[in-house]
């Protein structure tokens, strides 16, 4: 497995492999790999001749009061896991390789970024869209893999890839959950035992919604308030948002007439957790 830190080295590696008519799969990560990441890796390994995994904690997608400095990192463990999987190349650039002096360009996606996490984390999706655009250009990937836990991120990436005619197929992979139902996340490490129990309020709220739908409830505001009451009933929880939106446009839904996305962001202790489900 190659471990590369320079853009030119990754491009040379990809050019050489494509010269042999090999397909390239990309799994972009911020490291501290968990089973969710490894499912993306498994899918890439199954679909492509060559798999590249990037490890880069992207400062551009963190706000001034967010956890960039304390974001969990364990590069040696990540490398060990990826070697075991049979990954071909790891791209682990330093910040100044991705954002050199006088870097002045951003990729901005309108509409999709103005709700949910975009409303709560100004500039976040500009940082995501910019770095993913760079990674897709650097690796010239045939396919790139993203988890559906970050549902809004997936929709933003699908949008700019289409709009900018980037020749990469974006593949969304279902949410991976731990045995108790909690969506896997690098931030789960922040949770104490008590907080972990409270974190399960997110996935358990899906049953609250399904029960209301089964009873005939179709007012999105009523359903949303019931979910808020349910999650707030657990200690250590502080709701960032509970939203019911169209799964494609991410626009607010008032009356439920067809499928919808329930999107959640909740602080449990100091960990900001997200989850979602399409009903």
From TrEMBL:
Domain of life: Bacteria
Major location category of this protein: cytoplasm
Positions annotated to bind (R)-pantoate: 61, 153
Catalytic activity reported: (R)-pantoate + beta-alanine + ATP = (R)-pantothenate + AMP + diphosphate + H(+)
Residues the entry annotates as binding beta-alanine: 61
EC number per UniProt: 6.3.2.1
Record localization: Cytoplasm
Pathway per the UniProt entry: Cofactor biosynthesis; (R)-pantothenate biosynthesis; (R)-pantothenate from (R)-pantoate and beta-alanine: step 1/1
Gene Ontology molecular-function annotations: ATP binding; pantoate-beta-alanine ligase activity
Other facts noted in the record for this chain: The reaction proceeds by a bi uni uni bi ping pong mechanism.
Official protein name in the record: Pantothenate synthetase
Source organism per UniProt: Flexistipes sinusarabici (strain ATCC 49648 / DSM 4947 / MAS 10)
Gene that produces this protein: panC
